[in-house]
Amino acid sequence: MNFDQQLNNLLEKNYPKLADLAEPDFLSLIEPLRKAANNIVGDEDYKEGHLPFVIVVSDALIPAEKMMSVVNRNGVAGVTVLRPHASGNFHTVQDVALPSAKAYLLVGIDRGKDNINLPPNEAMTLIKKANRSPLTIAEGIAIITQYPDFLMKNNCFSLLASRTGADQRVPAIWINSKKEPNLGWCWDGNPHTWLGSASCKDRILG
Q1: Cα(10)–Cα(61) distance, rounded to whole angstroms?
Q2: Do 149 and 163 touch, CB atoms closer than 8 A?
Q3: How many Å apart are CA 177 and CA 25, to the nearest integer?
Q4: Which of 50, 138, 145, 198 is a Cys-bridge partner for 59, taking CB atoms 3.0 to 4.6 Å apart?
Q5: Per-residue pLDDT tens over the stretch 93-129
Q6: Rounded to whole angstroms, what are the CA distances from 150 to 20, 56, 60?
Q7: Is 206 in contact with 36 (CB distance < 8 Å)?
Q8: This prediction's pTM
Q9: Rounded Cα–Cα distance for residues 11 and 8 (Å)
């Protein structure tokens, strides 16, 4: 999907309303990313789990639960089940620097095919050795908002850059028994045969 396709998708999902913004004000946050997005090259590879870029809207602008509710995969809406937490209890880990803007581009996305069935703690070590960055909750939602079929039953993904700082819970997005895209959590020491840990090459502004 190119920049315009992703932007139109956000508008169709009523992101301005979710952000409590007039559409022109919402567009003023996204449009500065256009030039940089148009200069990004790369192919979409669902099998290997690679994407060139996605537009990320910060969960400081729209709560993760609201963004997750408008995800649609095969006609099924996304859900959030983070009990005993809410998404606001998760914060970006200290060694991951996010752009200060309310919207930015996530670049060089890898779903985590090579670290499936590794505990998140071990996957984090591999991601750092590769000079890549783990993803946040908002970034994971951004991916499946634009590419819902990128979330595959045999390769869902953890979001290691968001933690509560108070326990061992790691957020992840998977397909639950009702076939819903599900934002939930797993323990940081537990491996799952269907769960990798996603990462990116960079985060950029316009």
Answers
A1: 14
A2: no
A3: 39
A4: 138
A5: 999 999 999 999 999 999 999 999 999 999 999 999 9
A6: 29, 16, 25
A7: yes
A8: 0.97
A9: 5
* CA-closest candidate to residue 170, choices 138, 148, 137: 137
77/156 Cα distance (integer angstroms): 16
Which H helix or E strand runs over 134? strand 133-134
SS3 18: helix
Report the number of distinct structural domains present in the chain: 1
Question: Is 127 exposed, middle or buried, given 0-12, 13-18 or 19+ CB atoms closer than 10 A?
Answer: buried
Closest CA to 49 of 206, 194, 165: 194
DSSP helix/strand/coil, 50: strand
Question: 135: closest CA among 123, 152, 147?
Answer: 123
Buried b (16+ CB within 10 A) or exposed e, 55-67: bbbbbebbbbbbb
- Name the 3-class secondary structure at 193: coil
Pairing of strands 195-197, 91-92: unpaired
**Torsion sign across C-alpha atoms 162, 163, 164, 169:** positive
Distance from C-alpha of 58 to C-alpha of 137, rounded to nearest angstrom: 10
The confidence score (pLDDT) of residue 206 equals 73
Helix (H, G, I), strand (E, B) or coil at 25: helix
Q: What are phi and psi of 62, to 5 degrees?
A: -130, 120
Residues of the chain falling short of pLDDT 70: none
